[in-house]
Sequence to fold (676 residues):
Amino acid sequence: MTNPDRKSNRLINEKSPYLLQHAYNPVDWYPWCDEAFTKAKTEDKPIFLSIGYSTCHWCHVMEHESFEDPEVAEILNKHFISIKVDREERPDIDHIYMEVCQALNGHGGWPLTIIMTPDQKPFFAGTYFPKNDRMGIQGLMSILNAVVKAWETKRDDLLDSSRQIIEYIAGRKRECRGEISKDVADTAFSYFKQNFDPVYGGFGTAPKFPTPHNLMFLLRYWKSTGKKEALNMVERTLDSMYRGGIYDHIGFGFCRYSTDNKWLVPHFEKMLYDNALLAIAYLEAWQATKKDKYRFIARDILTYVLRTMTSPEGGFFCAEDADSEGIEGKFYVWSPDEIEKVLGEEDGKKFCQYYDITEKGNFEGKSIPNLIYSSLPYESIDEIKPVREKLFLYRENRVHPHKDDKILTSWNGLMIAAMAMAGRITEDDAFTEASKKAVEFIFNKLVRSDGRLLARYRDGESNYLAYAEDYAFLTFGLIELYETTYDTDYLKKALKLSDDLLNLFWDEKDGGLYVYGSDSEQLIMRPKEIYDGATPSANSVTALNFMRLSRLTGRNDLEDKANGIIKAFSDEIEGYPIAYAYALMAILFGRAEGQEIVITAESLNEAKLFINILNKDFRPFTTSLLVSGEGKELIEIAPFTDTYTTINGRVAAYVCENFSCKAPVTEIEEFLNLLK
Fold:
């Protein structure tokens, strides 16, 4: 970690919190830059590339063990050119070299360790390594010494290896233009059933990740097929995650994943993208079930984000670390004595019993609050709220985990969507205003004068040409904000971003979107991705965005492009559909007999009764427009709305379904009947 008494390296001039964490390492780090590659070529040295992010626990461990160590620094400085990359600032670089790591090792993760030629071609890849050999794990010193020797004596072998790696990765990306099968969603559902944990929810065994878009797909599958089992899987998972220690019961928000199968012991870092997508999943579950607990949990998640993860200007921060005072989870765990000291004996014992705080503990001698074994209903939480608030205020005096205060356009797009949906569904304007403020921040700070979107803002600096995921996720947020506010400007912005995305990222030959733009730095390859991992892919999100925008504006070219994305990756999706849940959401949307609804009114307020009816139920295949006296500019981007008018001055609803339109209605009961 940083130590001002030690000499700084080049990273001291960077804005990334991750790079700044390494600014006082004895390793002579470079950021990713031409200077580093020129020096490697001039001095004929291989490049040691280390990729991570500031809230990554094992990145901290490797830094402490190796990058702060003079012996490791000596060999790196003498024989290598060392480069540090923040994966959140440069997902293009991370994507390419993570693919290399997964191809060579069958798995990946962070820290990501790459050794490559001066022209960026990798010949070694791995993740965390201890300094020295340990318990069958090869140590970094052994690896570096072996590479130094091979670079001197067997360089042709290393170069041949790097060539084969790149050829293999490039060769396995065979694109396809086939039609996706009719039963692909059924196949995915069967995979989810096979992997479902009926006791604790979620899929597979430990570690368990929330992966909210899996649940969002299952909700849509239930809606389109009526299979209650899909809904039950969603509810079991959402209930179990909330009850587990992966959820912060004191300060709210979800941690990144659970190390066990029952969601008890998390990896304690909190990511903005997880909390955005989980808030959406809980909001949709409320719409689907009308169980208030889901709405309240979503509100609490977003309350955490507004309180802790929001900048004064309105942008949302990236993440909070797992560690505080160098110890993982220290900020979050409790002992019974500490609880009783804060709450008093009676309330303390009651709280400990409720939240499983014991003398033995459930995590390294302390206790992570959880409700896994509690039989009390969710509603009983009301009784505990006053004392829980006392514990929250007490905990605020602890040393907080490090906060990565970068503002990423992509993850902000997801949170903008979540806040907009929450404002619409819970009828709480605070969430809507937070969504609007974040959009204003991005368009003020992260759009260049020529209109080019940028990816990262921190400490007064905007940098890095935006990636496909930035365009995709922000467009998603703008669509949700339009359907919350019916402010046409958000729809216009979504269309402009979509056109820019196609101009900069579209593969004219095979279809689909590249990770980085045609005007960006061109790396050793230009990948495309449809895999929906921790976050959904840009291609998946864009496919659904384009379908929705096509229905909203009549732009059939966008639906054609959406279908082109699905066709381009059809082989991959068909091969293992469970890994492409968000893409499947787009497929279900395209096939559903959804409804397109146009409401006409003199103002938004007049239309509120009709709009509120739309928001009460789960309608994932429905789009809605408002034609009002305050927003006639809608006709510019959706010309078909020119013919929609109020009826005798009254609010009217026009409902179209399955390529045919019903007669407009002005009565609420008639509208309800059409929706059914």
In short: The chain is about 50% helix and 10% strand. The radius of gyration is 26 Å. Residues 379 and 584 are 35 Å apart (CA to CA).
